[in-house]
């Protein structure tokens, strides 16, 4: 896949995908815990400005083909991250803070636009503190969006961890 994310300014990345619609279906995969857990992370989301976000990561469960968690990611398996909704305009816009348990949380925004029977998804992740964070986040979002696309197409995604390692290596060169 060559849909690489792009650095749009210091500390911000942008990813774009054209996904099978309709928009309400894609929105459900962003906002409903059971659907979101199939491509990203489970957890409740209060869909209103100021609402709580809880993301529970179980990346080893994202693909049918099992791979052991690489040593450098073991601390993140089963991790929970917290945030707050900053904007929610269903079914077109969702923004939330990421990693609020740290002093300087970043912010994730999903924008959805119908395009015929497909949906243009634009994901922007802002306020990333370092190049290392940008490389890590780039590989992660790229892999997770690939799984989302597969799920929306009714396909089984490929292995997760080997894809993350491959993508991080590529983003290390790109960024």
Structural commentary:
The chain is α+β, with helices and mostly antiparallel strands and 175 residues long. The protein has a single domain, classed as START domain (Alpha-D-Glucose-1,6-Bisphosphate, Chain A, domain 4). Helices cover 28% and strands 30% of the residues. The protein has four helices and seven strands; from the N terminus they run ββααβββββαα. Strands 1-2-7-6-5-4-3 form a seven-stranded antiparallel β-sheet, with helices on one face. Strand 6 and strand 7 form a beta hairpin. Helix 3 packs across helix 4. The longest helix has 22 residues. The radius of gyration is 15 Å and the shape is globular. The chain starts with 5 loop residues before the first strand and ends with a helix. The model has no long low-confidence stretch (mean pLDDT 95).
At a glance:
With 175 residues, the chain is of the alpha+beta class. It has helices spanning 23-31, 33-36, 131-152, 161-174, and strands at residues 6-9, 12-20, 52-56, 80-89, 93-98, 106-115, 118-126.
